[in-house]
Amino acid sequence: MGLSKVPTARMGLIYGILGMLVLVLAYWLDTTYTFQHGPWVIGASMAPGIVVGFVSALSVPMTGLPELVGAFNGLGGLAAALEGMGVYLDPQATLFVRGGGGGGAAAEIIFLQTSAMLWVQAIAMILSIVIGCMTFTGSCVAVLKLHGIIDSKPRIPPFRWVWTFVLAAGIVICSILAFVGGDRTWNDRNDGVAMVALVAFASCLWGIMAVMAIGGGDMPVSISFLNSLSGFSTSAAGFMTVNKALVIAGAFVGCSGIILTLVMCRAMNRSIVNVLVGGFGDTGGSGITASSTSGRGGGIGVSSGQPQEMNVTTVTAEDVVDTLTSAKSVIIVPGYGMAVAKAQHAIAEMTKILRSRGINVRFAIHPVAGRLPGHMNVLLAEARVPYDIILGMDEINPDFPKTDAVLVIGANDTVNPAAQTDPDSPIAGMPVLEVWKAKQTFVMKRSLRVGYAGVENPLFFESNNAMYLGDAKKSVEALIELLRATKTKSSLTEQQTGKDNAVLGADAQVDIEQQPHTPTLDPVDKFLAEIPHLQQEAFIKLGVPNETNPQEKRVSIVPNGVKRLLQKGMLVLVETGAGAGAGFLDSAYEEAGGKIVANARAIHEMSDVIFKVNEPTKGFIEKMYSG
């Protein structure tokens, strides 16, 4: 069904929610697992979790989404660990059916598990506790690192591998001692409980030590890996309690998390072992000292040795707008800075303005951009940026040499040329977005500080790069104001230029025409003034509804066609969002003289002729206005 695609991902989530809801309700109503007053007790215990889940999901901003996912991963692991401890303390742990069966005499239909079944249950219980506790404490550390409470740099204790061996050996020994009383009396509430507690404590320490060693640049990978661990702990809990639903659901989560982790590691050109071993980003930097200048900075390639001062070019909003409006192709590279500044809506508006001027604007997304897999895609989708102009790294990297301008907004490590030019860099070999190959790049950051991975970025000192420093949202809003201002000033500028040319004479006119200038939209502006009159004089109305086929991205009439049709006396009515799949926003249709209609019903009632890409159905034809 293609639910992994961005346009259909929402439907995939809905299917998953409905599936889990049906599963929980089915088990809740099954008297084999809930007997007597069990359903109401379980329902009362689930209610606080449901409330907390809804409140946190609705209240946490998009910038806090990575921390929220990490916290949910940790709670999933904790639940599995507590379930394992509860099973160990259950007096009926050696029975295949622990109560249930409908109550009364039916509850006595129970039998002892075989020795092999008890071994499986015991191993699953230990795995549930170990993996669950490691996931919980590891996720807590990851959340604190993401939130900035703990420094993102890796922290590796002395004799780390000795401590790792001691913890692993202690877990194995204590796990064996927890069952020393025999397979029928393994729920020993004295020494056995102490051994299980030691297993949980050692696992918690291991989780903390493991994630503390992982640097900030690898945090998206660690979040994905912790997500897979929470799934495997749930699956182990399913084996422990003979619950098929937990086994299957946990396996789905665990395997999908591992697949995503491997994909991200491949995107970083690193192995999963290298990521989990940690230490990435634990460097002192390249020793580069930056100083601002209005001229172009020096080259790149300083990676170690004595500190060297290099010049950085800083520009104003006017400089950026001059370059953007004279460009034919623009690529925007978003990063976590965009999320922090909540600038996605402003960027979407700027994109709309640039595209309305005929500039080809696209977005380049690195697989590990942000603090979570798909973080940038979610933010851009929230701002209603068309899906078809959002491209991955492999798709768009070959286009950078042909691009006039690149706008890097809050990204750092994912556009670092040191990955290709400096073999001693911690990110050497990591695939990155090759923005420096464009004619001109602008990096929007609050300061010249290093990125989350703690690695210096020589892109800042490239001769074709300029730094546009400041808050991302405020900086983009300044660009939007200037873009709108150039639209109103363009006609006045050309009129004045014409007058000056007439005065200066033919020779001076040639000189002026040869001077570079910002492209204007005079024809569009004149047409905009005529739109109300043309709409009023139109003798026929043409309708453009959304295509009913969700896989269809084309639209029957594009904005340029709307303009030409209106000039011929035909008004085009466009259902909102009809051109989104093809990359045309509603505003583009309005600027071309079309009218945006709220829904398909209004299209049917108001249009004389309806245009569609696909053949209309019988029901569609019956809805059309007759007469």
Mean pLDDT: 78
**Strand-residue proportion:** 5-15%
The major beta sheet can be summarized as: 6 strands, parallel
Low-confidence parts: 98-109, 280-292, 294-308, 502-525
Net shape: flat
Number of strands: 12
Provide the helix percentage: 40-55%
| C-alpha termini separation | 40 Å
Computed over alpha carbons, the radius of gyration is 31 Å
Task: Please count the helical segments.
Answer: 22
Give me the side-by-side strand order of the main sheet: 5-4-3-6-7-8
Structural class: alpha/beta
Keywords for this entry:
52% helix; flat; four-stranded parallel β-sheet; alpha/beta; six-stranded parallel β-sheet
Structure notes:
By secondary structure, this protein is of the alpha/beta class. Helices cover 52% and strands 9% of the residues. The protein is built from 22 helices and 12 strands. It has helices at 9-29, 38-59, 65-89, 115-146, 160-177, 191-212, 219-241, 244-267, 272-277, 317-325, 336-341, 344-356, 375-382, 393-396, 418-421, 472-504, 506-514, 522-537, 559-567, 586-591, 600-606, 618-623, and strands at 288-293, 308-313, 329-334, 360-365, 390-392, 405-409, 440-444, 465-467, 540-544, 570-575, 595-597, 609-610. Helix 3 packs antiparallel against helix 4 (115-146), helix 10 crosses helix 16 and helix 12 (344-356) runs parallel beside helix 16. It is flat and about 90 Å long.
Question: In short, what is this structure?
Answer:
The protein is of the alpha/beta class and 627 residues long. It contains 22 helices and 12 strands.
